[in-house]
Amino acid sequence: MSQPAHYAALFEGHLRAFLASAAGQVERGAPFAEIEAAARGHPAVAAARTVGMWVAEDLVPAGAAAAAGAADAARLRERASRVERAVADASKRLQELSGPASAAPASADAFEELAAVVGGEVDELQAATARGFMAAAGAPLVEVRPHLALEDLRAEGSRMAFARARGPPPALALEPVANLRQDLARIKHYGLNDALQKAFRPMAYAVSSSYFKAVRPPVQLEGDLFEFKALSGIANAADAWTDAAQEALLEGFVERLRARGALALAGPEAARGEVVRALELERAALDLAGALDKEPASSSIPAEALVVLVVPAKLPAGGLTP
To answer: What's this model's pTM, rounded to 2 decimal places?
Structure first.
């Protein structure tokens, strides 16, 4: 088998294989704990940890120069305010859109439900953004590879090649990690949509997106009770895979910084989770605004990615049930 051109293709392949296996587990009624264990032991998790390690390794020389200063509280507050306004604007636009004009009833219903969930979480989304950015005040700034994406990463033997150049403006060391975690969230959506089309039938992104753990659709949303359980079971598997890969990416990043004596670049441990979440909220809000401008039919993807950051409900032991 030839080596994937970049890490996005690698993770897409991993997810396809995992969801094909998970569909079989769901069909035979396997308990969710079994599916979750398979997700945590999947090769994608080790690959994500490797990505995190090499991103950290890439930043250490930049951090060693210690010439970029520290994150300024006033600038972080301004940045948080921009995200807060973007979230409020996106929520309003989602409510006004009410699903694509040509959408089937199930798709329109799913889109409207997701829009309602986003609207109900605006206050928490804004509060989480403010908390996270302000928690980063004083953290070291380093030269990073702006807007780093999984498509920019390629394996070169035992090392990793970066398609983007590192350079100013300086940024928080956690920013590339947050971007890559959001890339995994996008891969999850496309992978699930493909898996459901193979297992059931073609459906809009709004429908498949509504089966993730951030949204609890009514049973009548799409098909009968059996199909609902099957759809939600596969979505739960996709969630478990993504959660495990995202966690491993951050863990690998922190582990390598610690090994290189540069853990300070990641900021205080107590604030790390909130900072990463705020950075992911920023990315998801920007993606949602872009989707609403250019491709409203797919805006459910960044919308779900946005709300799941503040609705991190653990999946029920038996998977999502009506």
So the answer is: 0.91
Summarised one tens digit per residue, pLDDT across range 139-178 is 999 989 989 999 999 998 878 999 999 888 889 999 999 9
* Structure tokens that stand for 50 in this block: 């490797």
Domain boundaries, the chain: 7-307
* Rounded Cα–Cα distance for residues 179 and 183 (Å): 6
Q: What is the CATH number of domain 7-307?
A: 3.90.1200
CB-neighbour burial class of residue 80 (10 A; exposed 0-12, middle 13-18, buried 19+) = buried
